[in-house]
Specification:
The complex is a heterodimer. In chain A, 39% of the residues lie in helices and 13% in strands. By secondary structure, chain A is an alpha/beta fold. In chain A, strand 7, helix 8 and strand 8 form a beta-alpha-beta unit. In chain A, helix 7 packs antiparallel against helix 15. Helix content of chain B is 37%, strand content 4%.
């Protein structure tokens, strides 16, 4: 599979065409989608028209953009006008958004060709895509295993060479975890760097959109295209988007990297070995490695599993059978709403709505939600103290390699523990990237995680690039 | 181990969240939600009286735009996505009960 950078170059210089690149992508989807269940919807007609338009504009000598003719997959919680958008939930089945997310418009303006919408855990709640109402996605590297989640479909699209790049969203690790399990680069950017206008909300103080790619260079290019201020998102950072691609090969000489005990302790032996090997590779590239302990990070999981459900219980109140999506009739409006929600939501979504409603309810607010917000403050302060000593932090992305279907799906707490290393950055609003480094059982990929202070994406990509080279994937 | 959550709590929360749970779901959720709340005991055991809560990573400030008219989404397009619409409005079943 060609990288996105190569596809765009080839389309721009005429050695390939957007239509040819799209056909290659569609052929690959046709070949493997039945087996892997990656795409919930493939927009053959729209994508073909978009690709033809790019080729036509190029033939007239126009600049067709940094992602010229690059097929791209979108997680199905992103709105694209007129294209079915389900969030992998029955409650939105048949809904076609009347507008597009800002990042979809930006991708199209940059020449990218959206080919379709990918599977996810319902409303992005999960770590395996087993919570999708439309069946799980299979890991292209071993179809008996999960691709991770919640952005499992977007990760699998790239891992199966259906597209070279894709878009996911990350609330507690939903980009980095599937990236690790599918052997990809995946980044959760700084909160506010990428507009969320048109992203269906799960937990608004945590959700962030980010890229999947096979290479660090492609991930940087994709993030550069989608980042930047958007007046339609009140949480969007006002500063101009950072330059990323130009800094990918900056190296790490003279930087200090903290190896954080709480971000790998308890992981499988092979994962710990990969994290240690990554630290060694960074040392060889000229970094000083500092062993750190940040005990506050241990509290992250508890805080997250109260804050995210609390916000979700509020965000998902809008699915009431009135304005969009599915309705199940009832004798009065309350009965209709209750019947609609009961039939429309799956078990995990109900569990989180219940948990959040409880955490926010009278008598429990201070003990649960209130306490979680204070732990969030502790997390932010602890990270800030660490970044006063070092430039970046290093740890594991996940406790183990891709797990088998059913292994954790009957035990919510076991599934939640899979997010233990990724959650703290979401609480802090900081960026973090997962990059493949080493292999574990059955030769499955392992992801190591690099974390940085707000707006340190360029440095994170530079560090990830050092590891990509050291891992022999130059 | 005793759960911090009782079956009646779960039934009450389901009503608040507008969800109907079966008897089996009530039992399952009581145990599963109890596990999550038990895990949260590591937090509730801490004395955080002097710590300010954080609801949002970078603090939210009001964002204003200029008060100018701009196009909005088409009403008929929006209503076409609703389960039921009538005379340019969303339509729902009866809201008020019969007079006593």
């Amino acid at each position: 599979m060609k990288s996105a950078q190569t596809i765009a170059n080839d389309v721009r210089d005429g050695s390939s065409s957007a239509v040819a690149e799209l056909q290659r992508s569609l052929a690959r989807i046709a070949e493997r989608n039945d087996e892997l269940n990656v795409f919930l919807y493939v927009d053959v007609e729209g994508a073909t028209a978009a690709a033809s338009a790019i080729d036509e504009r190029r033939s007239r000598g126009e600049d067709v953009g940094p992602l010229a003719g690059v097929p791209i997959a979108l997680k199905d919680n992103l709105c694209q006008i007129g294209i079915p958008t389900t969030c992998s939930s029955k409650i939105l089945e048949g809904w076609r958004p009347p507008y597009s997310a800002t990042i979809v418009d930006r991708l199209i303006a940059a020449g990218a060709v959206p080919v379709g919408k990918t599977n996810l855990d319902e409303f992005a709640m999960g770590s395996s895509t087993e919570n999708s109402a439309f069946g799980p996605t299979r890991n292209p590297l071993d179809p008996s295993r999960v691709p991770g989640g919640s952005s499992g479909g977007s990760a699998a699209a790239v891992a199966a060479d259906m597209t070279s790049i894709s878009i996911g969203s990350d609330t507690g690790g939903s980009i980095r975890q599937p990236a690790a399990l599918c052997g990809l680069v995946g980044m959760k950017p700084t909160y506010g760097l990428v507009s969320r206008y048109g992203l269906i909300a799960f937990s608004s103080s945590l959700d962030q959109i980010g890229p999947f790619a096979k290479t660090v260079g492609d991930a940087a290019l994709l993030l550069e295209v989608i980042a930047g201020h958007d007046p339609l998102d009140a949480t969007s950072l006002p500063e101009p988007a950072p330059s990323l691609v130009a800094h990918v090969n900056d190296g790490m000489a003279g930087k200090r990297v903290g190896l954080v005990r709480e971000l790998y302790e308890g992981a499988d032996e092979s994962v710990v070995a990969s994290v240690r090997a990554a630290a060694e590779a960074l040392r060889e590239a000229g970094c000083e490695i500092v062993e750190l302990s940040i005990p506050e990070l241990r509290l992250g999981l508890s805080a997250y599993y109260l804050i995210a459900p609390a916000e979700a219980s509020s965000n998902l109140a809008r699915y009431d059978g009135v304005r969009f999506g599915r309705r199940v009739d009832g004798e009065d409006v309350t009965a209709m709403m209750e019947a609609t929600r009961t039939a429309g939501f799956g078990a995990e979504v109900k569990r989180r709505i219940m948990l959040g409603t409880y955490a926010l309810s009278a008598g429990y607010y201070d003990a649960y939600y209130g306490q979680a917000l204070k732990v969030r403050t502790l997390t932010i302060q602890a990270f800030a103290r660490a970044y006063a000593q070092v430039d970046l932090l290093l740890g594991a992305t996940t406790p183990g390699v891709a797990f088998k279907f059913g292994e954790k799906s009957n035990d919510p707490m076991a599934m939640y523990l899979n997010d233990v290393f990724t959650i703290p950055t979401n609480l802090a609003g900081d960026p973090a990237v997962s990059v493949p480094f080493g292999r574990g059982e059955e030769n499955l990929p392992i992801g190591v995680q690099l974390l940085g202070p707000p707006r340190s994406e360029a440095q994170l990509f530079a560090a990830a690039r050092v590891l990509e080279i050291a891992d022999g994937r130059a | 181990m005793s759960s911090p959550l009782q079956r009646e709590d779960v039934a009450r929360v389901a009503r608040l969240a507008r969800l109907t749970l079966t008897e089996a779901e009530l039992d399952l959720f009581t145990s599963q939600l109890g596990q999550v709340l038990e895990h949260a005991n590591d937090m509730s055991a801490l004395n955080l009286d002097d710590v300010e809560p954080t609801a949002h990573p970078f603090g939210l400030i009001n964002v204003f735009r200029r008060d100018v008219v701009r196009p909005s989404l088409d009403r008929d397009v929006l209503l076409s996505q609703a389960p039921d619409a009538e005379s340019g409005r969303f339509a729902v079943p009866r809201i008020l009960g019969e007079a006593p």
